[in-house]
UniProtKB/TrEMBL annotation:
Pfam families: DUF2306 (PF10067). This is DUF2306 domain-containing protein. It comes from the Bacteria. The chain crosses the membrane at residues 20-41, 66-87, 107-124, 136-157, 169-191, 207-227, 236-265. InterPro entries: DUF2306_membrane. Keywords: Membrane, Transmembrane, Transmembrane helix. It comes from Aequorivita antarctica. The keyword Glycosyltransferase does not apply.
């Protein structure tokens, strides 16, 4: 009896860590989305497209209508997908508004493809900051997004909701890879009081090579560990994973604070 109560409390700890992580992440993602809407949206609506270049070196290029339109679509879809993602994951939304879940999910999957393809165009055709390592890594991110989107849709279609849920969460994590990158970067700048392990001019260096792969591999690995911990009867393992998730939450909390105060909030008011 005592054993089962203990086992229950370990799982409660695990669930608590995940819920806390999710709440902190959603706050950070919605601040990011608000920045995208206010900064890029305002520049676009007021006709000051060249303001995109304050953040994106190759955001707006005069005369390149198709390329500029693709960047604009990428930014618009970025705001929609960041806001829509958490609404898909929250279990109460699924049970109270199943029709919303179905259509928001279809939109999410469609956007996941378009944003990945437009991102690939921006990296390989238009050119972006960073070097070959970052280009390859973000392209792997794009492929992971499209594969996860396809499988999340396929399992929903087949009514295999157990597998659908797992692939939908993987999709949510890899879609947020670019967000994890920004939060990780600002966490690093905050704790080191400036750039360390990379050249801020070329945007290359060992730390950024590590971060560019970590932006999706660490969240995916933590999710696998969480799935294993959910099934596990090993008390030490479950508590360890709950603790790792809790520490990860503190890390992203610091990163969100640093990114919000360093770039997102100042640019919202630009
Ligand atoms: C699916 C989730 C994605 C979201 C939400 C997203 C969002 C954004 C946002 C908001 C920006 C503007 C930069 C900023 O203000 O911080 C941006 C820029 C950019 N994104 Fe994405 N993006 C996503 C996926 C991708 C993928 C998969 C790729 C590449 C394959 C990509 C490539 C780019 C590039 C190249 C830029 C321009 C950065 C530069 O100047 O080099 N994005 N993205």
């Amino acid at each position: 009896m005592i054993k089962s109560t203990k086992a229950l409390s370990e799982k409660n700890l695990l669930n608590l860590s995940v819920k806390l992580w999710f709440i902190v992440a959603v706050i950070g993602q919605w601040i990011f989305a608000t920045y995208v809407i206010l900064f890029y949206g305002k520049s676009t609506v007021t006709g000051h497209l060249s303001n995109w270049n304050i953040v994106l070196p190759k955001g707006y290029i005069s005369g390149e209508h198709i390329g500029n339109a693709i960047v604009g679509i990428h930014l618009l879809l970025a705001a929609i997908i960041i806001i829509g993602g958490p609404l898909q994951i929250i279990p109460k939304m699924r049970s109270y508004a199943p029709l919303f879940h179905k259509w928001n999910g279809r939109l999410y999957i469609f956007i996941a493809f378009i944003i990945s393809l437009s991102g690939l165009y921006m990296v390989w055709v238009r050119g972006s900051i960073g070097g070959m390592v970052q280009h390859i890594s973000i392209s792997i991110n794009a492929i992971l997004i499209m594969v996860s989107a396809f499988l999340a849709f396929k399992y929903a279609w087949m009514r295999n909701f157990k597998k659908h849920r797992i692939w939908a969460i993987r999709l949510f994590l890899v879609v947020n890879g670019v967000w994890f990158f920004r939060v990780g970067l600002y966490f690093w700048l905050f704790i080191n009081n400036g750039p360390l392990g990379f050249d801020p001019k070329t945007f290359e260096g060992p730390f950024l090579y590590f971060l560019t792969f970590s932006q999706y591999l660490i969240p995916l690995a933590l999710f696998e560990l969480y799935l294993n911990a959910q099934k596990s009867h090993n008390k030490v393992f479950v508590i360890s994973i709950a603790t790792i998730l809790f520490l990860f939450t503190i890390l992203i909390g610091i990163g969100i604070f640093a990114a919000s105060s360093g770039i997102w909030i100042p640019k919202m008011m630009y």
